[in-house]
Amino acid sequence: MNRLAGKVALITGANQGIGKGIAKAFAAEGAHVAICARNAAKLESTVAELTAAGADVLATPLDVTDEAAVQAWVDAAHARFGRVDLLVNNAGAFDGGRLDHVSLAAWNNVIGACLTGTFLCSRSVFPIMKTQGSGRIINIGSISAQRPRAGGVPYAAAKFGVWGMTQAIALDGRPYGISCSCLHPGNVLVERRAESNLKSDAEPMMSVETISEVAVTMAALPPHVNMLEAIVLPVEQDYLGRG
């Protein structure tokens, strides 16, 4: 416990699923958390859960593709807590189908939430972390960033981009004590999967808590150490040689 005591963590897409799980796990380890998401009602419910557990929370409804809103959120968190130690870029969207069925709107939605949002949030915290001489950015990727499924062009493109951006940010941040890493989850039993009847959602699953614990491990590493990449998936899930 208290592996993140006194740390300030910003987490996007934290009103449900993996983002909410990470926010709860970080808070349980002593971190102050600033969270954001598009759905204000779900965000309010998450805040109620976190504060009931004794967490120090700042919550802001926003779309991570909105440049001004992202900057205002980061500035508000910095003003409230005085520093930014951790950023978890979790916000994302999934839309797919065979290539000739993918609309431009679907493409833009996925690329915007997964890739543009990661860029904007990372760019906004970078000057703060640079001034501090320390900071850690954790991007939530996917095993689709390594081995895509058929019918997942926008998501695969976005997550491949997140993994590439992770490496580039790690290089940019290295002279300033800023690390950047990527956590690639396999199938996680988030709310939409629990409520779905899709065939892919009948595959082996792991809990949100499992991924959250890995995120805590990455976040709690000594500042001179980085886990650049972590691939976490159920043992029985198709991954190696999947198609």
Textual characterization of the structure:
This protein is α/β, with parallel strands linked by helices and 243 residues long. The protein has one domain: NAD(P)-binding Rossmann-like Domain (Rossmann fold). It contains 7 helices and 7 strands, in the order E-H-E-H-E-H-E-H-E-H-E-H-H-E. It has helices spanning 17-28, 40-52, 67-81, 104-132, 153-173, 191-194, 208-219; strands at residues 8-12, 32-37, 57-61, 86-89, 135-140, 178-185, 229-232. It has a 7-stranded parallel sheet, sandwiched between helices. Helix 2 (40-52) links the parallel strand 2 (32-37) and strand 3. It is globular, with a radius of gyration of 17 Å. The model has no long low-confidence stretch (mean pLDDT 94).
Task: Give a quick precis of the structure.
By secondary structure, the chain is an alpha/beta fold. The protein has seven helices and seven strands, in the order βαβαβαβαβαβααβ.
- Strand numbers in spatial order across the main sheet: 3-2-1-4-5-6-7
Secondary-structure-based class equals alpha/beta
Strand fraction equals 15-25%
Largest sheet: 7 strands, parallel
Total beta strand runs: 7
The topology string of helices and strands comes to EHEHEHEHEHEHHE
Write the CATH homologous superfamily: NAD(P)-binding Rossmann-like Domain
* Global geometry: globular
Rounded to an integer, what's the Rg over CA atoms? 17 Å
CATH first level: which class?
Alpha Beta
Helix content: 40-55%
CATH fold group: Rossmann fold
Query: How far is the first residue's CA from the last residue's CA?
Result: 40 Å
* Count of discrete alpha- or pi-helical segments spanning 4 or more residues: 7
At CATH level 2, the architecture is 3-Layer(aba) Sandwich
Uncertain stretches of 5 or more adjacent residues: none
Q: Could you report the average pLDDT, rounded to the nearest whole number?
A: 94
Number of domains: 1
